[in-house]
Amino acid sequence: MNEGTQLWLIRHGETEWSLSGQHTSRTDIPLTEHGRRRAEELRDYLEGTSFNAVFVSPMQRARETCAIAGFGDQAVIDDGLKEWDYGIYEGKTTAQIRAEVPGWSVWKDPIIDGETADQVGVRADGVIARSLAASPGGGKVALFAHAHILRILAARWLTLAARQGSLFALGTGSVSVLGWERENRVIESWNRSFE
Known about the structure:
Blueprint: E1 5-11, H1 16-20, H2 33-46, E2 53-56, H3 60-68, E3 75-77, H4 94-100, H5 117-133, E4 139-145, H6 147-157, E5 175-181, E6 184-192
Helix pairs in contact: 2-3, 5-6
């Protein structure tokens, strides 16, 4: 059951689009200067932490955060950690989308030409399985990725529906830890920020 395994969820630093609130999935943009500073703060925070495995999204904002934080050489790219595919909503803010579709929410409305929450949940389940397999005797696994995929991953860790990732806010450059209390999967810490 891998009850000693912890999953460390590390959201990438700020980008121009995370700052503006634009939905960013497949658009491959770099960190801002503030985002790079946040990754340096992550490096300081994580210094001395040993991970059995480090998985990272293939997107440059996650890879850049991982490298600055000091784990680039250890990281394995995992496509399962890509952000939710927002389809036609890529690059738009929620306010822009709601001007066309009143009351729209990524968590409850169809994503045209993108993924459903359940499809992202299946990817998250795969990441969880690979993380547990990489740490069979317990230990820490780092996952450098994006807000929505990590929120959904937390929901799936707790055996909640993927859509219940809506319950977990997650800031840029944050660290969260999923673990165990006896045989129960729990959130040990959430959204540790450096601001």
